[in-house]
Amino acid sequence: MPEDSDWEAYKVPPTRTPVSERITSVPNPVTFFQTVFNYVIDAPVTFVREWIERQQAKNKFYYYHQKFRRVPDLSECLEGDYLCFFEAEAQWRRDRMVDQEIVEIVRERLGACKQREGPNQFQNCAKEVEQLAQVIKAYQDRYGDLGVHGNARTCLMKQKHRMMEERKAQANASQ
Asked: Which portions of this protein are annotated as coiled-coil regions (predicted)?
């Protein structure tokens, strides 16, 4: 910077911002509307929300730990008991979703083992491979060949036919 700088041309800004003085006696409409909004709308809504949160804090409900009571199987329902049929169907769908998740978890464990072990996966992940084979076989035995529109009745009929084939095979083997 040159030595002969003119300090009047380059004034330093003030260190504090000056307070604006009201020139009119009319109140500012913005502050009026803010105050009205706070007391008329915001305060009651905040009160109601805090009250609801206090009530919910007293009664904790964990939706992810929902437990359904076991209902009778479709084979245990009486003829014409449509409510029992519906409950058995809902129970079967929940069981199927749980079994699907079990297969996925075991499959993810096997994938993690393979990723972790690398070239030694065939030796060190044999237990996980065997477990996955058992889980998939059990899932296929119960739900295989039902298709997308499978339901509790077709699953029960499939199991009945499989049991009859096994009995027939035992009878033929013993003769």
From this structure: none
